[in-house]
Amino acid sequence: MVWIVLGVLLVVAEVFTTTLFLIMFGVGAFAAAGAAALGAPAAVQALVFAVVSALSLLVARPVIRRHRRSALESGEQPFGVEAIEGSTALVLERVDTEHGLVKIDGELWSARPYDTTQTYEPGQRVRVIKVRGATALVWQDDVSSAGELPEARG
């Protein structure tokens, strides 16, 4: 029963960290719970936990991380938030460090300036640099008057 509780705690902790590290120990804990269910002594259970956790870290984690690459990195068509990043938006309500509203491909998004010293007025076009949660971080779209985009800075 201890192994199952430990496994559940590790899996829940992984949900909050998203590092693909704790989940591997959770897999080891569930394997040890299986060994305990088969009547293995505590030393064998601990060995199963250690071996399965280590194998998970060495084998499964690199494969999972490789498949988690973004669509842009893998050359696939981006979707969701990745498709929004880099697109242009129309400012509907003043965008400053406290609040803002933009229209991106027909959808309304809350927005904040990528550069916190900037503000954007309704009617301006901006570029979505990054999306954090449900908030678009935007930058002035007119490259000629804004200079370089933030990614191009050193």
Automatic annotation (TrEMBL):
Subcellular location: Membrane
Any one of the GO BP annotations: proteolysis
GO molecular function: peptidase activity
InterPro entries per the UniProt record, alphabetical: Membrane_assoc_protease, NA-bd_OB-fold, NfeD-like_C
NfeD-like C-terminal domain span: 82-139
Membrane-crossing segments per the record: 41-60
Keywords: Hydrolase, Membrane, Protease, Transmembrane, Transmembrane helix
A GO CC term attached to the entry: plasma membrane
Topology of the protein relative to the lipid bilayer: Multi-pass membrane protein
Protein name (record): Membrane protein implicated in regulation of membrane protease activity
Organism the protein comes from: Micromonospora cremea
Lineage: Bacteria, Bacillati, Actinomycetota, Actinomycetes, Micromonosporales
